[in-house]
Every structure is written in structure tokens, then in C-alpha cells.
Request: fold
Amino acid sequence: MFDELEKAPLDKIFKLLAQFRADEREDKIDLGIGVYKDENGNTPIMRAVKKAERQILDNETTKSYVGVAGNREFCDLIADLVFANIIDKSRIASVQAPGGTGSIWVLLQVIKRARKKGKIWISDPSWPNHYPMCELAGLEPNYYPYFDKDSGKVKFAEMMKVLDRLGPKDTVLLHGCCHNPTGANLTNEQWDIVADSLKKTGAFPFIDLAYLGFGDGIEQDAYGLRKLASTLDEMMLAFSASKNFGLYRERAGVAFAIGKDKNGAEIAFSQMGNIVRASYSQPPDHGAEIVRIILQDEKLRNEWQNELDEMSARIKNLRQKLVNAIKERSNLEDFNFLTEHSGMFSLLGISKEQVDKLKKDHAIYMLDDSRISIAGINENKIDKLAKAIIEVTQ
Ligand SMILES: Cc1ncc(COP(=O)(O)O)c(C=O)c1O
Reply:
């Protein structure tokens, strides 16, 4: 059977990582991988996570099944964190899923059941997994304009031209905050305009929220999604605890469906449960239980919040230092947009040839579209990076 198939293409990120590992130059820099790294290049286990894990080890009495919808307290705590009481709880349906990706997957399946011929609109560019996931789920992915490579900003007028023309059969996938890969995000005023447009057209909003708290703090990062949730009758949201709790390999996430009313939420909940059961039956519990313990314990919660703030402050600081280093050496203002971006990533907006030159001549690795992972920058290497960017772009 297998020789009737061709080899599937390797994920770009893993291909880049293999090239980076094989490079023997000592001063190499990896800006490719999408995980947070500290100053020493490690992806640490958060302090509160380690403490919660010890509690699990001491107190867990069974490994019996948790249930199709997963850890209910975890889901409710995440609902409070994300929606902060702006909508009636009876409208919120949730199932725990394996990470943000698992949550997106469950929600796409629900959309597929409800909108057999509908299109799904994703930003150009978007997280590289969005397009193939939509295709695999049997939906028709299309792009709306999003990022202007020359200015490093959101092409908002062009984006709205497309969104304003959609109809009730369309789904619009929006990044809740910290857009991946570009780092460019909507302002609060722009979110207000998107909410009005969706209200008028009836297009269905789907928020991917993989970086809550990684940009400008939880309240600001949640502005857009809360605006949509409080303005519109229905929406979906996929939450990931991979980045903000540093739980990447534990696969903790929540798929949310907001219904018009209790009845709508109950239908959505039953559909999600039905899809989970036929897909992987139940989500893994360990990561969700860690998050539950942290969010229910005031001390651990404060500790987690402080460490999350430290991580996002480090990223902001690195952005500023890189921009300063480029300016000091060249008077180049072209990269100032990096400080306006938020979250783990930015798209430099340079060409594939320039990306290749950075790799070949300077051992600096980033994705072909010039996405850099800011946390991959180490303070000692900022000068090298700034010099190399100037060299390949001038
Ligand atoms: C925009 C976006 N959505 C979803 C995910 C998936 O996160 P998870 O690892 O929790 O599946 C990522 C991870 O990189 C992401 O950047």
C-alpha cells in the first residue's frame, strides 16, 4: 500500500532545525523554533508548573479516565481567564483538547458539519498549520490580506475590504493576539471595526488564542476576543496553554464554542464531544491538571503570572535592543516596526535570498518567509545579528 503514496513534505520548521543542528559554527543563532527561550537558550519549566507537578505526584490516586470533555475545572478556569465574566456562562461550551492544535481540530470539524459549502478565511500569512488543517478538515481555506511587508504593519483597509464582503456561510479565523508569524496585531479600534463588520455580514468568527499574556498582558491581549464575544451572537475560540504555561509537550488546550444562548451552547458541546470521542476519545490530563492547580492556588497563580510577565518583558527588551543596535550602526529606520510588534515572533519582511545569505554567511537561521523568534535572540548576540541584518539588506 505505501508505495502507492509519495513521501509527504517535511514541516519547514523541523527541516530548519535539522540544518541548524548540523551547522558546526560556534556562534550560530537559531531564530526558527517557536518556543520561548531564556538568556541561556533553554526552554525552562516554569516554577509554578514544577510545584504543581509535585502536588500531582503526591496526591494523585488514580489514572482512571477523566472523560470525553476532559478536566472540567481546568476548562472553567480557562473560560474565566479568557472571557472574564463578560458573557453569561450558560453560553460557553468547552472541551479540553490536546493543545491549541487539538482544539483547532475539534472546532474545524464542528464547522465542517455546520457549513458544508462554506469557506474559511485565514490571514495572509498565517500560522503555517492553519491552511493544511483546514484542508484536511474538508474546508476550503482562502486568504484575506493582512501583513504589509514594506511597513511591517497590518494592511487593515485591504483586510476590511475582504471581510466586509463576506456572508453568513463564511468563517473568519483571527489570531487573538501576538500574531504568528508576523507579530503585527490589530489595535483596539481595529478590533472594534472587525466586530462591527462581523455583526453586519454574519460571518462566523473563530479565534486562535495561542499566546494569551505573551504580548501586552492578559487584559490587553484579550481585548479583541472579548470585544467579539460581547458583540456577536456566536463564536469559537481555541486556547493553548503551551506557551503561556510552558507546557508544550503536555498538550493542554481548550476548544470553546460560544452559543447565542444555553441551547446553542448545549448543541455545540454535544457536537464537540461526539467529534472528540470518534477522534481520540479523551484528552491527556497531566498538563490540564497542572494548570488547574496553579490557577486555583493564589500563591502559585501569582508566581505563574510573574514569570509570564518576566518572559514577555524579556521579549520586549530584546526587540528594543535589536532595533537600537541596527539604528546605531546604520541609521536604518526600516526595522523600527519590530518594537511595535508583540509576542514571540516578527516577520522581518526580507527576501528569501537575504534569508539564505544570513544562513550561509552568518549562521543565522530563520524561516524562509523571514519570521524570527525573538526569544531565540541572546543579548550577547544582538550585535552580530544587527550587523548581519544590515549587511544583507544594504
Ligand atoms: C497561532 C498558533 N496557533 C496554534 C498553535 C498550536 O499550539 P499547540 O502547541 O498548543 O498545539 C501555535 C503554536 O505554535 C500557534 O502559533
In short: The two ends are 52 Å apart (CA to CA). Residues 298-330 form the longest helix (33 residues). The chain has two domains: 10-45+301-393, 65-296. Residues 34, 99-101, 127, 175, 180, 208, 210, 240, 242, 248, 253 surround pyridoxal-5'-phosphate (CB under 6 Å).
